[in-house]
Write a structure and sequence with these properties.
With 100 residues, the chain is mainly α. 52% of the residues lie in helices and 0% in strands.
Amino acid sequence: MGRSGVAASEEQVATFFAMRGSGSSIEKAAKAAGVTKPTGQRWIDQRDGIVRRSPTRERVNSGRFLSLADREEIAIGLETHLSLRQIGDRIGRHKVGRQT
């Protein structure tokens, strides 16, 4: 199913890939199939096994949130009965009380 909620027909997909196979650009093939250029690109990516992520959706680790490694260190520290200060020192943070 497409992002608009409407599933593409097999005919649309076949038209798109037939046009691409004959050398048409993604834009021309998508137009001939009655879909947008991003939809055509997504079909190519899906066929080729490419996973793309939108740069606006990627999170940059600002240091505000704990990483998975930090969470694992906190869990290990709690299991081995380290103090919260010791756990904080291990992960390079001075406060871990709220995370426990």
